[in-house]
Amino acid sequence: MKITGDQQLIKKMNKTIVLNTIRQQQPLSRADISSVIGLNKATVSSLVSELIESQLVSEIGPGESSGGRKPTLLLFNRSAGFAIGVDIRVNDLLAVLVDMEGNVIREKTVPLEDYSPGKVLDQIRKTIRGLMRRLPASPYGVVGIGIGVPGLVDEKSQVISAPNLGWDNVDLYEALSAEFGSNIHIDNEANAGAIGEKLYGAGRDSKDLIYLSIGIGIGSGIIVGGDLYRGTSNFSGEVGHMTVAENGPLCRCGNRGCWETLASEKALLDQAGTLWKDHAPSLEDILKEAKQGNEKVLNLLEQIGSQLGVGLANLVNILNPELIVIGNRLSLAGDYLRQAMLSTLGKRSLSYHRKQTHVDFAKLGIRSTALGAASLPITAFLADPDVSITEAALNP
Amino acid sequence: MKITGDQQLIKKMNKTIVLNTIRQQQPLSRADISSVIGLNKATVSSLVSELIESQLVSEIGPGESSGGRKPTLLLFNRSAGFAIGVDIRVNDLLAVLVDMEGNVIREKTVPLEDYSPGKVLDQIRKTIRGLMRRLPASPYGVVGIGIGVPGLVDEKSQVISAPNLGWDNVDLYEALSAEFGSNIHIDNEANAGAIGEKLYGAGRDSKDLIYLSIGIGIGSGIIVGGDLYRGTSNFSGEVGHMTVAENGPLCRCGNRGCWETLASEKALLDQAGTLWKDHAPSLEDILKEAKQGNEKVLNLLEQIGSQLGVGLANLVNILNPELIVIGNRLSLAGDYLRQAMLSTLGKRSLSYHRKQTHVDFAKLGIRSTALGAASLPITAFLADPDVSITEAALNP
DNA sequence: TAAGGTTAATTTGTTTATCAAACTAACTAA
DNA sequence: TTAGTTAGTTTGATAAACAAATTAACCTTA
């Protein structure tokens, strides 16, 4: 075992700190870095020159003088490489090609008809290949791939169960790494969404946040101290099946009164069913009616919002997060849910807790999961830049 | 700012790792340490000699040879110093004097009549002084003090609110540090209990656990990756006020259907009231009847157990912990609650999660909080052994 | 416009913690 | 007795951070 540290560890840590400082506060000079992180000027110079050599950082010329020699400003080289993020959704999959800063370079939505693992995998492979074609020139090419899956993913990247796809024990990692290298990350869709919003969206300034993915069911990603909380064997965050009404409606999990029977997109659609005569309404139908001021629909949305608040209050009382971000499909109805939701949350959470917690809707909209998934290989790559260069880099 | 590392940091980290290895696996030799943690033999020797010099470690002579020179076995010097832990309970306070391994050296229970902060503080001070008198000789004396409080404690050690004591904004830290030095730790009673069970009790082998303190209300301490999860401003874990029955009984917090209205000691006492004609029963009365096979009482306990299971299932689904430890008063009724509790938990938690989570009752019984509180200054002291030597050490 | 002051970045030499290798010490087994 | 094994220390090399000195490039102002 090797759990202790030596000088190389220190250097790696300091180099990472320097790189992250540049990423977050760019543009800035070597002298700035030294004063911000407290590292000696000489050491900063040395580490920066290594970062420049590996093309992760570049100089963009002199900045404003503050009375003496002009500083040489540094920039994170966002085009040093790219990453691909895939969100497997219920009817389609969304794939994005992003640069190292998470900016979307190219995007693709592919409808899914056949949910069998083999077919979906084929679609994923094809889509990834498509995104990798005609890449802008870059030193590292595509550094890795992240996939968000609507189901349980264990610590060995195995998809244990994905009810909405009808999957059990599917090994996406094995299948993809054979073609695309080792920097492949498979994670739960809500976990990926949480990371996406934390890095690029509503949670940028929060260390503790809960991302709620509300679609057919309710899933969540819990971020504690900046890192994802994973629980035993990676199965945390199944908040949709928390009991909020002991003798409530029957849930597909076999229980009664699960939160998602009362506050998910499915709950909304089920209850809206009686208001439509000719066909089962879609979320879009409902929103259209709401926009036109349909009283009954507005009341229904208010009721769902209130039920949302009940579960939120539980989460606030239990975990006292800085921020709750609501994402996925139901966030489209945010405007009609917000008021009732916040009101119930206010009533049902403890006063000291309520004051501290903010509730927001996803800033990345429908892309939270895909962007979060893409960030996984980027983070891994930047922590250890030698590890993972895909074929894209080798065949430019 | 100084967030980067240098050689001193490395040395401190490695020294801590060496010390913790000795604490956990003693007795063992320098060579053992080297092979366990991967540090070079020479480095281990150097660090160990410093630890011996500071009297935190001692040699206890040669061990069995395995074919060559006999190893010199090392032991953590559990009597290098002592710590005091105090648990402020509803009717009394429990104070313990422990050695550096958490062994109880002396113990004191003091009844509380007047709950005003001043009076309680006086009692605490008097009790601490009593425990510090006639200490066994030791190099460091009492290294610090930890206090567990039944209420919200913020990150600056301020007691924001303790409803059962009628406290608001009480500064225990200031008052105690004036007399006893700076290594004073104030924390929520359930947080301290969680740490106690983690270090010395049922949670020794678990990295993620939830400690439930079930007395008048239900509090919890959540340990994630070996560390306490604190939430924003240190207010996490108020699980007692999670809604499990939307239109259930009114709670003292103003809500309906909070878990603690259905599954706490108070819920049990309230509901048992109708079974006793002459007086309001105590938990002890109830347990006596249960022991004698009183059907109605047994049914009531079963019902409480089942309600316990509902909330447990929520926690399992949300946090998927390795272990849930139930402590404080209601754990005394563990034998009568267990079956119904586990059965409901089984029914209401998701199958993949249930398999992984164990539920246990506190191994330290009523002492979880006091021992956990005492561990706080010990941990702080061992992380930085120069910091905190109380007057006890100066006036031996 | 030359001198003095200021800020940026690099160079030089010192410190210090780890490590590998060689060594001493102390034992076992045949 | 001797060869082999394990424990622990000593010695010298290495590498990373640091302080101080130095070079570089600017600004201000008399």
TrEMBL record, chains A, B:
Keywords: Carbohydrate metabolism, Xylose metabolism. CDD domains: ASKHA_ATPase_ROK_BsXylR-like. It holds the Pfam family ROK. It comes from the Bacteria. InterPro entries: ATPase_NBD, ROK, ROK_cs, WH-like_DNA-bd_sf, WH_DNA-bd_sf. SUPFAM superfamilies: Actin-like ATPase domain, Winged helix' DNA-binding domain. Transcriptional repressor of xylose-utilizing enzymes. Belongs to the ROK (NagC/XylR) family. This is Xylose repressor. It comes from Paenibacillus motobuensis.
